[in-house]
Amino acid sequence: MNENLKGTTVLITGITDAGSLAMSIARQVREEGGHIVCSGLGRTPHHADLSERAAAFLDSTYEAFESTVKSELGADTPTFPLDVTLDGSIEDFCGALQAKNIALDGFLHSIAMDKTIKAGVVIKSILDVTKEQFFGAMDVSAYSLVSLTRGLIHSEILRKNGAILALSYLGAEKVAYHPYKNIGVAKAALERIVVELAYELGVSHQIKVNAIRFSPYTGSKAGGAIQGLAEAVAFCEEHSPLGNARPEDLAYESAYLLRPYGRVTGEVRNVDGGYHIRG
Ligand SMILES: NC(=O)c1ccc[n+]([C@@H]2O[C@H](COP(=O)([O-])OP(=O)(O)OC[C@H]3O[C@@H](n4cnc5c(N)ncnc54)[C@H](O)[C@@H]3O)[C@@H](O)[C@H]2O)c1
């Protein structure tokens, strides 16, 4: 095992449970010598006028996140609540890192949400997506890369020469085998943001910003909810030259792109067993 990340500290966002792609990446970062800090969606003082149902959802999501991190990554792994749609939550999160003297060498953006996707429900056609659903998906799944990066840079938590990695999908560019629609538009924006940030932060801080498009995967909460994804997994398994990439393949490439040296930036890399080369 290499020690590419020895002595570094990496923020892992987007762990819901042991099936989250972020969990596989966290394990690999640790394997390669990195220290882990985790943020999870949960209730914050900035959530105003929450319904009982919404409050219960946020509380149970955070509980599941914390217990998964502590059991899978160790009881001493620092955990923090973070809702990326709330500027105040990002500010508090950065303040909490500073209070614990935590500086970062990199972070994983593994966050997505689209209210037009619900388990067992047919995904809305793009023509029927409301303005609220459109901007909701954009806010959580794309703009959050800008706002979280800004928070970490302005508070000088993210060190020079660091690395940022975001998770994307082929549906950012193409009409996928299964309906991806509204979230596909948000992923396209996310990838464009990666390129813009790669330029700006490369010049100003020598920070690298990349994205990985991963194979379809039903083992996570978000993946499990996407209509037709199980069929897509089977189709891509058959049609990819190497078969679908597994979470451990993603984890290995992610750790590589999160290493603090090297000059790879602004890339959108396919970790999908070669499915993207098919016509
Ligand atoms: N599952 C797949 O098929 C697949 C394929 C390629 C890329 N991806 C991408 O990988 C990433 C992780 O997805 P996953 O499949 O591991 O599912 P997941 O459900 O485990 O992860 C999604 C995460 O987003 C978080 N999140 C949602 N709204 C948030 C908010 N407002 N603030 C903070 N966090 C919020 C959730 O709490 C969750 O932890 C996503 O960007 C997803 O689009 C998934």
Describe the fold and architecture:
The protein is an alpha/beta fold and 279 residues long. It has a single domain, classed as 3-Layer(aba) Sandwich (Rossmann fold). It contains eight helices and seven strands; from the N terminus they run βαβαβαβαβαβαααβ. It has helices at residues 21-31, 52-73, 87-99, 131-154, 181-205, 221-224, 229-239, 247-257; strands spanning 9-12, 35-40, 79-81, 104-109, 158-168, 208-214, 268-271. A seven-stranded parallel sheet has the order 3-2-1-4-5-6-7, sandwiched between helices. Strand 4 (104-109), helix 4 and strand 5 form a beta-alpha-beta unit. Helix 1 (21-31) packs across helix 8 (247-257), helix 3 runs parallel beside helix 4 (131-154) and helix 4 packs parallel to helix 5. The longest helix has 25 residues, at 181-205. The radius of gyration is 18 Å and the shape is globular. The mean pLDDT is 96. The structure holds nicotinamide-adenine-dinucleotide.
Strand and helix map with partners:
Layout: E1 9-12, H1 21-31, E2 35-40, H2 52-73, E3 79-81, H3 87-99, E4 104-109, H4 131-154, E5 158-168, H5 181-205, E6 208-214, H6 221-224, H7 229-239, H8 247-257, E7 268-271
Parallel strand pairs: 1-2, 1-4, 2-3, 4-5, 5-6, 6-7
This protein binds nicotinamide-adenine-dinucleotide (NAD).
